[in-house]
Design brief:
The complex is a heterodimer of chains A (about 230) and B (about 240). Chain A has about 230 residues and is an alpha+beta fold. Chain A contains seven helices and eleven strands. In chain A, the strands form two sheets. In chain A, strands 3-2-4-5-6-7 form a six-stranded mixed sheet. The radius of gyration of chain A is 17 Å and the shape is globular. Chain B has one domain. Chain B is globular, with a radius of gyration of 17 Å. The chains are: A alpha+beta (about 230), B mainly alpha (about 240).
Chain lengths: ~230, ~240
């Protein structure tokens, strides 16, 4: 038997309007980008594609994404004033629009963030409706995850045994791996591990400290009051 | 635990000697490993947001960025003329209120979508205020609405872009119709009749909103959707 829908997939989500795809989903893409940056964002370069590009204004897609980058969840009423709040917090942002980019899902955003400590990350995500999203690209690597579970994202040199080292570090903490995806790009490998529980900061650092690991980040699932979640 | 058709739920009800609300409570508890209290906590949260979105739309300034929605709910609510009675007038105003709050980036509970978010709150608040249905009973009503929504989710789609307006407001209207009949003491058979009635009334509606925005005609259809379920109200006497 496959996973059955919850009654709260039908009643809910509790969200800031007007659109579960163009507002709630958009904020989640921004929020995932923030988590992947793992730093206080200083600059954001955002490209909205297709339907996002055409109807962002009336749907508040631009505010929702900036709100997500500020760490607001999809039900956080501060989203409405996200642009003013971003200015106050010293976040600069810039939007570009590409209305007919058929390679991408109709509600897609590319978010590049630069952090106050100089780190940066570039993410492409699609909003699927009902507030659900799919992250499709990180740092140029094709990925595929929904950010509905704790997700460990790693980019590393493609060396033998790398998967074993990483899964070992996770297993040592008694954390179960629900799903794992691996993709390769020349001599680099990308690993996405969906976990049953969260991972502590020390384990994340341990993974990050492997000499061949270039990038290791944990994305936590969005809950209704996820806006409380701060790194 | 799996329900694919409304008749599966009705069958479960007669086998277990439970009503539709209890069937859905069992479904959620068993599949999501939740306690009764946890499920009810979630339902209460949804109901609170629904009520506050109605309240907001009836009291605060709500003008959408496009200007298409502009404090219409208050006008309807305070209108002196009542062509079809005070209860329907207020239900309509409440549906508009939520639509306006939604368009103005306020907080709403999608049920099942944001574009159709006005229908369930309008019906539930109206049942509480005009028909004196208790809060606890309304939470059971929400469970019944989820039964209908679940079957649509499994067999069709809530996305207007895929299933047309019927997928969004049609689903919500059917959920609301089932809820009203349940709250008025209708049988499972009458609940299913109400679902069919509401769906037939929304058949074939396209999803082609003005400017691609969740404003028009979503708003008007949410108003209309208050009608079909209410006409199915069984005679309380």
């Amino acid at each position: 038997m496959s996973e059955q829908p919850s009654i709260f997939d039908i009643l809910g989500p509790i969200m800031i309007g007007p659109s579960s795809s163009h507002t709630a989903g958009a904020s989640r893409i921004g929020y995932v980008a923030r988590q992947l940056l793992h730093d206080e964002p200083k600059q954001a370069f955002i490209t909205l594609y297709n339907s996002f590009a055409k109807t962002h204004k009336g749907h508040g897609t631009d505010k929702a994404i900036v709100g997500g980058i500020l760490g607001f969840g999809p039900d956080d009423e501060r989203i409405r004033n996200a642009h003013e709040l971003a200015k106050q917090q010293g976040l600069e942002w810039e939007f570009k629009f590409r209305a007919d980019f058929l390679k991408f899902h109709s509600n897609t955003a590319r978010v590049k963030l630069i952090g106050k400590n100089g780190s940066s990350v570039e993410v492409v995500g699609a909003s699927l409706g009902g507030g659900r999203i799919r992250i499709q690209e990180i740092e140029g690597f094709a990925v595929d995850f929904t950010a509905q579970s704790h997700t460990l994202v790693i980019i590393a040199e493609d060396i033998p045994g790398s998967i074993q080292h990483i899964s070992g570090a996770v297993a040592e903490k008694g954390v179960n791996i629900a799903n794992m995806f691996v993709s390769r790009n020349e001599n680099m490998a990308n690993m996405v591990l969906e976990l049953d529980q969260s991972l502590d900061e020390a384990t994340l650092k341990k993974v990050h400290d492997f000499s061949w690991v270039k990038f290791a980040r944990l994305v936590s699932p969005m809950t209704e009051h996820s806006s409380r979640y701060e790194k | 635990m799996e329900f694919n058709l409304l008749s599966d739920i009705v069958e479960y009800c007669s086998k277990e000697k439970k009503d539709m609300a209890q069937a859905m409570l069992d479904y959620e508890m068993r599949n999501k490993h939740l306690s009764r209290e946890e499920v009810y906590e979630g339902l209460k949260k949804i109901l609170r947001v629904m009520e506050s979105s109605v309240e907001q739309g009836l009291t605060e300034m709500v003008i959408s960025p496009s200007g298409m929605l502009n404090n219409w709910a208050k006008t309807v609510y305070n209108a002196k003329v009542e062509t079809l009675g005070a209860s329907l007038k207020k239900a309509v105003a409440r549906a508009i209120a939520v639509g306006e709050v939604n368009a103005c980036m306020g907080k709403i509970a999608a049920a099942p979508t944001a574009g159709s978010a006005g229908i369930m709150p309008a019906v539930l608040v109206t049942m509480m205020e005009e028909h004196k249905v208790s809060r606890d009973r309304v939470l059971e009503g929400l469970l019944v609405s989820s039964a209908v929504g679940l079957i649509f989710a499994k067999n069709s789609s809530f996305a207007g872009s895929e299933a047309g307006c019927m997928g969004e407001t049609g689903s919500a209207a059917a959920m609301a119709a089932a809820t009203i009949v349940f709250l008025m003491g209708g049988t499972n058979e009458q609940i299913l009749e109400a679902v069919g009635f509401a769906l037939k009334a929304s058949m074939g509606l396209v999803c082609d909103p003005v400017g691609g925005l969740v404003e028009e005609p979503c708003q008007r259809v949410c108003v209309l959707a208050n009608g079909p379920g209410r006409n199915q109200e069984p005679d309380p006497g």
